[in-house]
TrEMBL record:
The keyword Membrane applies. The chain crosses the membrane at residues 12-31, 43-61, 73-103, 123-151, 158-176, 208-227, 239-255, 261-279, 286-305. This is Beta-carotene 15,15'-monooxygenase. It comes from the Bacteria. Keywords: Membrane, Transmembrane, Transmembrane helix. InterPro entries: DUF6427.
């Protein structure tokens, strides 16, 4: 049974998932016309960054102990990548997600109350570099404020630190560009361009995938209170940051002028984490977990080939 296989703490499910990911990545690019556009070097680099992001995601989950095993989340991430294969063709999104995960790692470690100032500063620092590759990543600063509210709300100075970290990274980047390339950077043009009335001109295939996300999100939202009851306070706060990240990135994808499905990586990462927590619910019978996983597999295969 799949639930028994992915529930184990051994690394076998992780490596099997990675093998499936690499096989899917190779088939997706070498059997299509994307190879001439990206080149073998960029394809290999992008794959290496994606695999690194998965290991980083696994490390974050284990380090913060809000899942017994990260295997469910990583396998669900693979299925969501199959539904949105465009995410595997954009190296900028992979790099932006990597810096976002660095920021998440610092945010979630705030619960230890060790080196809080440094951690809050680092969130803003990594947020800047993420926004270089995907401008809406600047919304992570909102997550930083929420994290400060969770772990250091009694000290007003902590609310300023993410912006100081962001500014410090900006100054370093500007100085580097001036010294190495002798060119200045127009950071204003890099700001995300949001609109209040987005043009939702999607094809029928894209609409089906959006409906899938909406239905799955509502389903998980229904079980979210039960997921929270099985977690300690710090774990609840960690999961809340992922839930808020999902909402913020959904907003960015809907209202960003330059939105496309290659940016869905930011959406499916927190969704995979929340799905992993759902599959670890003790109140949920193994049979229903098994059915849910098989439905996800069928949805991934079906939506990929539609």
């Amino acid at each position: 049974m799949l639930t028994r296989f992915f529930k184990q703490s051994k690394p076998i499910p992780l490596f099997l998932t990675l093998i499936l990911l690499v096989a899917y990545y190779i088939s997706q690019h070498f059997l299509t016309d994307n190879l001439p556009e990206m080149g073998i070097a960029n394809l290999a680099l992008n794959l290496a960054i994606i695999v690194f992001n998965i290991f980083l995601m696994r490390f974050i989950i284990h380090k913060n102990n809000f899942q017994k095993s990260s295997n469910y989340s990583i396998f669900c991430l693979l299925l969501y990548l199959m539904i949105f294969p465009e995410t595997l063709s954009n190296i900028n999104m992979s790099l932006a997600l990597m810096f976002n995960l660095f920021a998440f790692r610092r945010m979630l470690s705030m619960h230890s109350n060790i080196d809080l100032k440094k951690k809050v500063f680092d969130v803003g620092f990594w947020c800047f570099f993420s926004s270089l590759f995907w401008p809406p990543s600047i919304l992570v600063l909102i997550l930083a404020i929420i994290a400060v509210l969770f772990y250091a709300s009694d000290n007003f100075r902590f609310y300023i630190l993410p912006f100081l970290g962001f500014t410090a990274a900006l100054v370093l980047h500007y100085t580097f560009k001036m010294l190495v390339f002798s060119t200045s950077e127009s950071y204003i043009s890099r700001l995300p361009d949001f609109v209040l009335q987005p043009e939702l001109n999607y094809s029928s295939h894209e609409q089906i995938r959006i409906y899938f996300l909406i239905i799955l999100s509502l389903f998980l939202l229904f079980f979210l209170p039960k997921i929270y009851t099985g977690l300690k306070l710090n774990m609840q706060r960690s999961l809340s940051l992922f839930a808020v990240a999902y909402a913020l990135f959904a907003f960015a994808l809907i209202f960003n002028v330059n939105e496309n499905f290659s940016q869905s990586f930011f959406l499916i990462m927190p969704l995979a984490v929340i799905t992993g927590n759902f599959l670890e619910l003790k109140q949920l019978k193994t049979l229903w977990k098994e059915i849910f996983i098989w439905l996800l597999i069928l949805a991934a295969i079906g939506l990929h080939f539609i």
